[in-house]
Write a structure and sequence with these properties.
alpha+beta
Length: about 425
């Protein structure tokens, strides 16, 4: 640290001023204290002077300083508090390596500091631009290390799954198939038109894939997304084929349920084939007739490993309101026909009353009468017949009294019961038989 010429550090000799007046100039500063060369009591300070000559007592270890006439203390340039220009008796001073740093007026920066500030600002702007470029690269996925999501370039499991779900979300069925290790066979349920009809009502959105990296030949990764109102969290299994990752399954496969019977079932308006296959989505079912309907008219496929219980077990068709009304009316029509039929065993009536062997029925002699109160079938419940959903039935108990004569005039009387009415649905047609 440099020596302060006004207040020298204790234990250090004062530094001489440089100049042209001689090898040593007068020393200015505080009076010497004990241990600094003064012997005896300290001198009485003179209040009339701010500065005075130092004691001439020599400091131990240093030669005594010659005595010079008192000289005025030099102030900073242009700062003489007593008026007048400052005169330096020692000439123009040289650079002082121990002087304090130069102070400048506030609000004024040195030229070198301005250059440093400009360089700092430019460096900061450059850093922001670099960060923005990196952010754009990461967002667009065009960085040199980003994995492509194209089906023939997906080098990570996450990239393959991301590409598959993205293809579904825009209805690109052909591209979605290419992500499969074994692409599914052609099906009317796997076309672009069919897929677009599904996502038009229930779009696939909010896709998020877990960004895992797997170095083995198989992997599984999770994804979350929404299918219409349904939130899905699913796990997909993948296999590495060469350098490209493929999904083990991209569709759910199942057989047409047997309980659909002969119904012309449609899925999103497309006639259902015997082999069913579905991409993830929500699908609408129709029986193909206004007489029947599905108890749950839609089902959801959340991922290619979904069991689709809604489709295969819990959505059997049921009789619609129109089907109920039609079945009751058709049963009443048939009953009315059977009651007046002039045969011992009229067709589809379930009323066989044969005569004894050798007897011949006399024409117009058959009389059948319902012996219960109320209108037959009016309050009946129509149910689906199992296992064939193309038939419906009414369970009843309808007692009927029968009277008939043979050609000899012999009268025969008896009773029978109709216990069931069964209807077969064929499109909008319904055929009923009694038994």
């Amino acid at each position: 640290m440099g020596q302060n010429p006004v207040n020298p550090t204790p234990g250090q000799p004062p530094y001489p001023h440089s100049g042209t007046s001689g090898p040593l100039g007068p020393s200015y500063g505080a009076p010497a204290g004990p241990g600094y060369g003064f012997q005896g009591p300290p001198p009485t300070p003179d209040a009339s002077r701010a500065y005075g000559p130092q004691s001439t007592v020599p400091t131990p270890g240093y030669p005594s300083q010659p005595s010079y006439p008192p000289q005025p203390v030099p102030f900073a340039q242009g700062a003489n508090p007593y008026g007048g220009p400052v005169q330096n008796p020692y000439g123009t001073p040289g650079p002082n390596p121990y002087a304090a740093p130069e102070l400048r007026p506030a609000g004024r920066l040195p030229t070198k500091s301005r250059k440093g500030l400009l360089i700092g600002l430019l460096a900061g702007v450059g850093a922001l631009v670099l960060i923005a470029v990196v952010a754009v690269v990461l967002i667009t996925g065009t960085a040199s290390g980003a994995a492509s999501t194209e089906p023939d370039k997906a080098s990570t499991p996450a990239a393959a799954l991301q590409g598959f779900l993205a293809a579904l979300s825009v209805g690109d069925a052909d591209k979605a198939k290419l992500y499969a290790k074994d692409p599914p066979a052609d099906s009317p349920l796997l076309t672009a038109a069919f897929l677009k009809s599904a996502i038009a009502k229930n779009p696939i959105t909010e896709i998020s894939v877990e960004p895992i990296v797997d170095s083995s030949a198989t992997a599984f990764t999770s994804a979350s997304y929404r299918i219409g109102p349904t939130a899905v969290h699913a796990t997909y299994y993948l296999t590495k084929v060469g350098k490209i990752w493929k999904l083990d399954d991209v569709v759910v496969r199942t057989k047409r349920p047997a309980y659909w019977g002969k119904l012309a079932v449609t899925i999103n308006g497309t006639t259902a084939p015997s082999d069913l296959a579905f991409f993830p989505g929500i699908y609408q079912l129709s029986t193909g007739t206004s007489l029947l309907e599905f108890r749950t008219p839609s089902f959801t496929v959340e991922d290619p490993r979904d069991y689709t219980a809604e489709l295969t077990a819990t959505t059997p068709a049921q009789v619609s309101v129109k089907g109920q009304q039609t079945m009751i009316a058709k049963s009443q029509e048939l009953l009315a026909h059977c009651l007046v039929a002039q045969e011992t065993n009229p067709k589809d009536c379930g009323m066989n009353t044969p005569l004894p062997a050798g007897a011949t029925l006399a024409p117009g002699t058959v009389k059948r009468t319902v012996t219960t109160d109320g209108t037959p079938f009016a309050k009946s419940t129509v149910l689906m017949s199992s296992p064939d959903s193309s038939t419906v039935s009414i369970s009843t108990y309808l007692p009927i009294a029968v009277e008939e004569k043979d050609t000899s005039g012999q009268v025969y009387k008896g009773n029978l019961v109709v216990v069931d009415a069964t209807g077969t649905v064929d499109g909008e047609n319904l055929t009923v038989v009694l038994s």
